[in-house]
Design brief:
single chain; mainly beta; four-stranded antiparallel beta sheet; 11 strands; 57% strand; globular
């Protein structure tokens, strides 16, 4: 994913119309196509996120086990484990966004969590050739 902001500080700052977009990357002496994606209309000062496809050198595995329902509240939950395994030669900055159901919330986690667009987000640094595990517990209807 390529993330920037449509402002003058990031060499943009004009309304961007929807359409196809290509990104290029300098590799040695050559400039190579990095990827193609679709861009939605973006106003000035709006955040821009461009998804360029899957990363075959990163693997994400998730497991979820139900937790007993609390007889007093009638609320259940899940113990969750997400493992991110990297085969990259360099450290990778990775964002794990958790999509929760209506009324569900994270009540405990072993990594610092923030919110983005109303959803929990774990910002992780995955060392080269290593894996990182995230454990969290949810409660909800």
């Amino acid at each position: 994913m390529l993330r920037t902001k449509n402002d003058k500080a990031h060499h943009l700052g004009l309304p961007l119309p929807a359409g196809r977009m290509a990104a290029y990357q300098k590799v040695g002496e050559r400039t190579l196509l990095f990827g193609r994606t679709e861009l939605a209309d973006k106003a000035e000062d709006e955040e821009v996120e461009l998804q360029f496809g899957d990363a075959p050198d990163l693997q994400v595995i998730q497991a979820s086990l139900p937790v007993k329902t609390d007889p007093r509240s009638g609320r259940g939950g899940h113990d969750n484990l997400v493992e991110i395994d990297s085969e990259r030669r360099e450290t990778t900055q990775f964002e794990l966004e958790i999509l929760l159901k209506a009324g569900e919330k994270i009540v405990d986690a072993d990594h610092t969590m923030t919110m983005k667009n109303g959803q929990p987000l774990f910002a992780l640094s995955i060392p080269a050739g290593d894996k990182v595990s995230v454990h969290f517990r949810t409660e909800g209807p």
